[in-house]
Each structure stands twice: as structure tokens, then as C-alpha cells.
Amino acid sequence: MYYFDPMYFVFALPGILFALWASFYTKSTFARYSQVRSGRGLTGAQAAATMLAEQGVRDVVIEPVRGMLTDHYDPSSKTLRLSEQVYSSSSLAAVGVACHEAGHAMQDATNYTMLGLRSVLVPATNFGSRFSYIVFFLGLLLRSRPLLMVGVGLFFMAVLFAIVTLPVEWNATARAKKAMVVSGIVTEQERHEAAQVLNAAFLTYVASAVTAILTLLYYLLRSGLLGGRRD
Fold this sequence. Notes:
Largest sheet: 3 strands, mixed
Structural class: mainly alpha
Radius of gyration: 20 Å
Strand order of the largest sheet: 1-3-2
Number of helices: 7
């Protein structure tokens, strides 16, 4: 049955293992620096607010959100949402994550092109991620090349989103590393420690991109669109 195609796991397994390791590394790094209090004692929410104010960004709402590491910035409502363990904590891990998300708000305020592109891709990516598998495997079962191409096209949106996300996240981290020192939120030494959390988190985005690309290669080879043979 195509849904259990062993060939899929040949392509997917490296990405899955990388993603699992990246997730473990990120959580363990966050846990380590969650035990280290920042010198100024600012909470994540206060650090983000301070950084944005120093950068002249004053139209962003900062609010808590449930979940672990569910921190994100919503450009549509200009809302910076911080997970509970980041919002009220004064650890270097919390400050680093909060300032990273504030970096996204800074991107929005300066009309950073890649952030705008990622936002535009969200609806198509959500649709493609949800239906690409169904359409693709239906194409295999029915030996329908048009369905296969549609399935590949839908999943390509997820791959494109994962790739575009990389410079967006890296740029937000770079902004945070610089602005948190300039704004006096952390010292230069503390910046390096807080950056460890951000660098670890970036690996999860790399893992997502690698997994998406490997899956796309499987789609292309399995459908015969990349020189493979369909059966």
C-alpha cells in the first residue's frame, strides 16, 4: 500500500532524526539558561518592551500565551505573544527568546521583505500542508500524473515557506543580539549566554527545512517527475 511505502522512510528518517535532536537540544539549552537570572532582572515581557521602545517601535502589544516555547509575533495584529515561562521569567533564556520575538516586531516596523513574504505564504502553506499528502497519494493510486503534479505543487508551498523562514529567523536573532546590548537589557557576556538559546532554536528551523526538502525529493522521485520510475 502506497501509504506505507518503505522508500518514504529512506528519505524521511534523516530529517526526522535531525528534527528530534534539534528539539531536544533546544529544550535542554532553554532549561539550562532558565536557571541563570539576568543581571538587570527584567522579565521577558519587560525586556521585549524595553528593546522595542529603544528602537522606536511603540505600537506592539505584548501578551502571554499558553504552552511551552509557543512564543511568536503576529504581524497582522502587531501582537507579540510570549509563553508563560518567558513572559514572567527574568532568566537569560526568557530574555533571549523575548528579544528574538521583538526582533520580528522590528522587522515588521522596518518592512523587512522576507517577513512580508513569509506572511503572504501562510494561507497557501496551510492549505498545501493539509491536502498535499491526500492529493499526491491519490495520484499514485490512480496513476494520475495531473494529480501527482498538483500534490507536488501543494507541498512545494510548504518547502518554500520553510526556506523563507530561515533568513527571517536568523535576521530576528541578529537584531536581538545587537539590540539587547544596545538597550542595556543584558551585558556583552550575558548576550553570549542568551544567544545560546537562540542559536539552538534556529536549528529547529533548519531541521524543518531539511525535512521538507527531503520529503519533496521523495515526492518527485516517487512520481517520476525527477527521473524516477512510477509503478
